[in-house]
Amino acid sequence: MICSKGKLDPELDKICSILLENGYLEHSINSTLKRKLQQLNSSPVHTVKKCPVYLHVPWIGNVSTRFKKQVTSAVKCCFFSVEPRVVFMTRQLLPATKKDVLPSHHQSNVIYHFVCHCDSRYVGRTSQRLEERIKQHIPKSYPSSHSTHPSKPSPPR
Q1: 82, 51 in Cβ contact below 8 A?
Q2: Is-above-0.90 flag for pTM?
Q3: What are the domain boundaries of the chain?
């Protein structure tokens, strides 16, 4: 609306009387005013789409909840085109980069070079654990006192 209802009605009455004095038909004036008032009342209000802004803060308990409310309220008052979104973060309990390193004979999916007890050489690839695959190369009749570790395992792929 252009102005308050109390001021609009007297202005419209004044406009109608001016138009009547100038020869316009009362029916035309009333239908035009009615149509225009309906357009004003039904037309959508165009607003700027609010842009989401993310704020990552540590979770500290109830203090974090109060902080979120205060920040959201302050941002909405100062920046009308911003939609604040507070995201709470926690520390990682176990770092993902520090894993235990397996000994080479316990690894799987490796390429290996095996030197047999009979001086034969073999290069192979296995998805099994390397220790299990090497045991398959050694005959059961061969004494178990010999090492089953490969001579030079390649790193896993």
Answers
A1: yes
A2: no
A3: 5-42, 51-89, 101-157
